[in-house]
Design brief:
about 775 residues; alpha/beta; Glutamyl-tRNA Synthetase, domain 3; seven-stranded mixed β-sheet; 23 helices; flat; Rossmann-like_a/b/a_fold; aminoacyl-trna synthetase; protein biosynthesis
């Protein structure tokens, strides 16, 4: 007999007893469902919804001995404990349990029973009670509690809950974005493909295409092909294929099949010959600039009506890579003057004498993407080709290729290309940043590459939710980063452990009167709202450190809260001639109410040999460019942000030594960070934006909204302002921007506006008056 226990990870309090006994007995599997209401056990054809009844049912099914008369009393206690708020009543209950367990291993008998699990669950579900247990005032109860929690079955519950919280189900809004689905789609038959060119690293724009392809393949229980579009030997290298697969793995994207366009070079060549023989393609040696002009003006090429024999002869020359052959290309014979210029006889084959990274020197001619893509899509069984709408003008060309060759048709599904403000997606421009050393590589956290944004702390779940929320939108806009980072915060906040770090600049030593004579170590939760994240060791001492900024804000005899400790009163403060605080004396006031203090302060015990602190570097980053959107004619060199990385030396609590590279944490009162590794003995943490304006605003862009060229660019800010004043743009209090809006007279006229009422307020001089 085995059942299913359905429960929501967001339940408060969480039904710990039911979940723990389910895994302990092995009589029910856990099903975390964000839409579930309450907790439900389905077992042996019956449904149970009350937690105490679920515990009893699973205990019976698991054969746990439970015939004591005291069991009912423990179930009653478990029911009342969550409702008790008065401290004396809670303490009395804990005292009673501690006394009972002084000479007993379990509550009833010599083995774990339902009574143990129902009481343990009640304690586990109360943050207040768990906190009291950690004070070591109830050693027997704590020993029993810790034993049940340490069981492998209980740890499975804790890990499962943490995973369920981090992988929240997508909102109805996200799902609704795709309510229409794909046209002509049949469950089990849909095949999508993601066709990257192996010539660089994937960026956030590619991530949208890859995620949508995988989403629809899974939605229709179909397949997704990862196909490398390797038709240009000039750009492509084998190592880029490897990095692209690594990037996809970082996004949790795995294809059902990996192919290459080069797998089909023989077939593509035969199809090109077929098009020549049927009069649907011709060879052309028109120079590139002239061809571009003729296509634009709707002028036919001089070779458009050449014979099939001549076209085959020239294509053969191309295939051999001869001196004559490299002058020619092959063009599809579609239209000379179609209003859609993509249909004006596009090139479908070119010569290239460089060896191919997979086929070597076998070929001297290679198909263009516009020719190869529709053909290979049809051959490979792709049912739906997802393309950004920048290709929309080429969609008729895609269909024409398939029809001209009599191949199986493929559905096209358009979506908008992803663009972000202050962000470059151009491979050429990103290459420039790498080549000039302005960034450290393609995984630099300032880069929009997949490995760059993942290194900066963006989670796959947040990225997936964001991409799917865009839905089938056709709008081509530059998006703000705030909504993406806000989503990311919602994913990481419930599971990011909390630690402390202090800015090393002018750290202030503090003597705490009433503190322990010798340093004491206590366990506290890493996350107060999510105890299952685990615990950390906090050192309490009468000699602590606080940040200079906090120390400067303290007033004499002000009561402040030392986080995770209690209130303290500032009794004295020593300040040097430069105004720097050099020492403070505080007096503990643990009876004080933390709700009445204005300042909650992070602190660290002064380091000793036994309790050292960790040298850390906190990194923050700015956008690489100072203009929201670079235009076609803009030179990226003129808009480089002068400083884009900011480093802060810090001391962190010793708990961070347990972290692994890539772990996401929160330094309380500082923000979210991702551990990036150790450099020269210092642990480095990269700041993760949280979506708030201050964390994502460009630190270099001027307030006027006008792009500022970087040092060495056309002009600096002061020069720009001076120019504006000389042009009459900055007079009096006018807004210092260029504007195409027409001028409007002032509502109150040009004269001074008198105050229309009597007032006792003093007059202030206009800040714009010279």
């Amino acid at each position: 007999m085995s059942g299913v226990l359905t429960l929501t990870p967001t339940a408060s309090p969480f039904p710990w007893a039911a979940a723990a006994i389910a895994t302990y007995t092995g009589k029910a599997t856990l099903n975390f469902d964000n839409t579930a209401k309450g907790v439900t056990l389905e077992i042996d054809g019956s449904k149970v919804t009350a937690e105490d009844e679920i515990v009893q049912a699973l205990a019976k099914a698991g054969g746990l001995s439970d015939d004591s008369a005291k069991t009912a009393a423990y179930f009653a206690l478990a029911k009342t404990l969550p409702t008790v708020t008065a401290f004396p009543e809670i303490t009395a209950a804990l005292d009673s349990l501690d006394d009972h367990l002084a000479y007993r291993t379990f509550l009833v008998g010599h083995d774990i029973t339902a009574a143990d699990w129902i009481v343990w669950g009640a304690l586990k579900g109360s943050v207040k009670i768990v906190g009291l247990l950690k004070n070591n005032k109830h050693p027997h109860l704590l020993r029993w509690y810790s034993h049940l929690e340490s069981l492998e079955s209980t740890q499975q519950v804790i890990a499962g809950l943490a995973e369920a919280k981090s992988a929240k189900a997508r909102s109805n809004k996200t799902a609704a974005s795709f309510a229409l689905g794909l046209q002509n789609a049949k469950e089990g038959e849909v095949v999508t493909r993601f066709p990257p060119e192996p010539s660089g690293y994937l960026h956030i724009g590619h991530a949208k295409a890859a995620m949508l392809n995988q989403y629809f393949a899974k939605m229709y229980k179909g397949k997704m092909i990862i196909r490398f579009d390797d038709t240009n030997p000039t750009k492509e290298r084998t190592e880029f294929e490897e990095t692209i697969l690594e990037d996809l793995a970082l996004l949790d994207i795995h294809g059902d099949k990996i192919t290459h366009t080069s797998d089909y070079f023989d077939q593509l060549y035969e199809y090109a010959l077929q098009m020549i023989k049927t009069g649907k393609a011709y060879a052309d040696d028109t120079l590139q600039e002239q061809m571009r002009k003729e296509r634009w003006d709707g002028i036919a090429s001089k070779h458009r009506d050449d014979s099939v024999e001549d076209n085959l002869k020239h294509f053969a020359e191309m295939t051999s890579g001869s001196e004559e052959g490299i002058k020619w290309c092959l063009r599809a014979k579609i239209s000379v003057d179609n209003p859609n210029k993509a249909l004006r006889d596009p090139v479908i084959y070119r010569t290239n004498l460089l060896p191919h990274h997979r086929t070597g020197s076998k070929w001297k001619v290679y198909p263009t993407y516009d020719f190869a893509c529709p053909i290979v899509d049809s051959i490979e069984g792709v049912t739906h080709a997802l393309r950004t709408n920048e290709y929309r003008d080429r969609n008729p060309q895609y269909h024409w290729m398939i029809e001209a060759l009599g191949l199986r048709p493929v559905n096209i599904w358009d979506f908008s290309r992803l663009n972000f403000i202050y962000t470059l997606l151009s491979k050429r421009k990103l290459h420039w940043f790498v080549d000039t050393g302005l960034v450290r590589g393609w995984d630099d956290p300032r880069f929009p590459t997949v490995r760059g944004i993942r290194r900066r702390g963006l989670t796959v779940e947040a990225l997936r939710q964001f991409m799917l929320a865009q839905g089938p939108s056709q709008a081509i806009v530059s998006l703000e980063w705030d909504s993406l980072w806000t989503l990311n915060k919602k994913v990481i906040d419930p599971i990011a452990p909390r630690f402390w770090a202090l800015n090393k600049a002018n750290l202030v030593p503090v003597t705490v009167k009433g503190g322990p004579e010798k340093p004491e170590v206590k366990s506290v939760p890493k996350h107060k709202k999510t105890p299952e994240v685990g615990e950390k060791k906090t050192v309490y001492s009468s000699q602590i450190l606080v940040e200079q900024e906090d120390a400067l804000s303290f007033e004499d005899n002000e009561e402040v809260t030392l986080m995770d400790w209690g209130n303290a009163i500032v009794r004295s403060k020593t300040v040097n001639e430069a105004g720097v605080v050099t020492g403070i004396e505080m007096e503990l006031h643990l009876d004080g109410d933390f709700r009445k203090t204005k300042k909650k302060i992070t602190w660290l015990a002064q380091p000793t040999n036994e309790h050292p602190l960790v040298e850390a570097t906190l990194l923050d980053h700015d956008y690489l460019i100072t203009k929201k959107k670079l235009e076609e004619n803009d030179d990226v060199k003129d808009f480089v942000t002068p400083v884009t990385e900011f480093r802060e030396d810090a001391l962190a609590d010793a708990n961070v030594r347990e972290l692994k590279k890539g772990d996401i944490i929160q330094f309380e009162r500082k923000g979210y960070y991702i551990y990036d590794g150790t450099v020269d003995g210092r642990m480095e943490f990269i700041h993760i934006p949280d979506g708030r304006a201050a964390s994502i605003a460009s630190k270099a862009a001027p307030q006027t909204g006008v792009a500022t060229p970087a040092e060495g660019g056309k002009k600096d800010v002061a020069a720009a302002v001076e120019d504006g004043q000389q042009r009459g743009q900055l007079t009096s209090s006018e807004t210092p921007v260029d504007t195409k809006m027409y001028k409007m007279p002032k509502v109150y006229g040009e004269g001074e506006v008198p105050t229309p009422v009597e007032t006792k307020m003093y007059n202030m001089k206009n800040i714009y008056d010279v």
